[in-house]
Amino acid sequence: MAEERRKGVEAEREPNFLLAKLERRFLPWAAGKLPRWILPDDLTALGVLAAFGVCGAYQLSNHGRGWLWAASALLVVQWVGDSLDFRLLELNLTVFDVIGLGILVAMLALLTVRVFGNLRELAKEEPSARRS
Predict the structure, then answer these.
(1) For an engineered disulfide with 50, which of 35, 69, 77, 104 has Cβ 3.0 to 4.6 Å away?
(2) Are residues 73 and 23 in the same domain?
C-alpha cells in the first residue's frame, strides 16, 4: 500500500457522456489531420483564448442574441483546444495546471497583502496596551 502511494495514482479519462463515442473517433482523426507544425501547446493556447472569448460573448449577450451563437461557437473551439491534452516538462503538468498554480500563487499573495494591511489599520485604530 505504501509503495502505491509513492508511485502515485495514474488515472485515465473515462468518457461516459452522450457524445463520448463520437468524440473517441473524432479527436484522433482531427489530430491526424493537423499540420505537423501545430503543437499541443498551440491547441492549449487556442483553448484558453476561446474560453476568454466565451466569457466575453456571454457578457455581450445582454446586447444581442447573436452573441449567444458566438459563445456557442467559441465553446466548440475551446473544446477542441482542451480535448487534445499533453504534458508540460517532466513534471506531469499540463499548461492548465501551471496557469492554475500561477493564479493560486497570485491569489495567496494578494490575500497576504490584504491581511497585513488590515492588521496595520487595526493597530492604528486600536493600539495595544503598553507593558509597565
Answers:
(1) 77
(2) yes
Structural domain contains residue 7: no
CB 71 within 8 A of CB 61: yes
Q: Are residues 64 and 103 in the same domain?
A: no
Same domain, 46 and 108: no
Neighbours of 129 (CB within 10 A): 6
- Give me the pLDDT at residue 3, please: 53
In a domain, 2, yes or no: no
The residue range of the domain holding 42 is 15-85
Instruction: Specify the pLDDT at position 111.
Output: 93
In this structure, how many other beta carbons lie within 10 angstroms of the beta carbon of residue 28? 11
> Along the chain (132 residues), what's the average pLDDT of each consecutive run of 10 residues?
56 71 81 82 84 91 89 86 64 70 90 93 87 74
pLDDT for the residue 21: 82
